[in-house]
Specification:
Blueprint (H helix, E strand, L loop, with lengths): L7 H15 L9 H5 L11 H12 L1 H6 L3 H11 L1 H9 L16 H16 L3 H7 L12 H12 L10
Length: 166
């Protein structure tokens, strides 16, 4: 069966089943409608890691702007792309964000993890947010919805991050 032949109801059910399979906690059982509304980044869809890295990099924009370590800036450029890095250096972040940058070898992973936490905190659906929340939430997972949403909206105005292998 081709993808074009799949009914909307079947596609919605498949998306809900995929979301259910990725839930980080077994103690939460959201409704199928909630699961069907799961965002692409939570399902590890193509391009989603780049989206999360862009959001996480925005969280670190102030630290990037203060950085004088050429190795860290080069690592950021290698992972994000020159266009996004320049946009981050030129942007006015919606808040203070991260105080410092991680080590060069951890930039990509930390940007992705911070982006995931911010995207999760920005979800307006409380049931979906609870379903996707890690068992041990971090500091970013506890950001107020309005604060996280402001960061997510600001990230949408930035150029995309380049795709990088995991």
């Amino acid at each position: 069966m081709t993808e074009a032949a799949v009914s909307p109801a079947l596609a919605r059910a498949a998306r809900a089943a995929a979301a259910a399979a990725t839930l980080p906690r077994s103690d939460v059982s959201p409704a199928w409608d909630t699961l069907a509304a799961c965002p692409d980044w939570a399902l590890d869809a193509p391009g989603s890691r780049a989206t999360l890295r862009r959001l996480g990099a925005l969280w670190h924009a102030g630290a990037l702007q203060r950085c004088i370590d050429g190795r860290q800036l080069q690592a950021a450029q290698d992972g994000l792309g020159a266009t996004l890095l320049q946009a981050l250096l030129d942007t006015d972040p919606p808040g203070p964000g991260a105080a410092a940058l991680p080590a060069c070898e951890a930039l990509d992973q930390v940007f992705a993890e911070c982006g995931h936490a911010l995207a999760l905190a920005a979800l307006p659906d409380a049931a979906l947010r609870a379903a996707l929340a890690p068992a041990e939430p971090g500091a970013l997972d506890r950001l107020p919805l309005q604060v996280a949403a402001a960061w997510a909206e600001a990230a949408e105005r930035l150029p995309p991050a380049q795709e990088t292998p995991r």
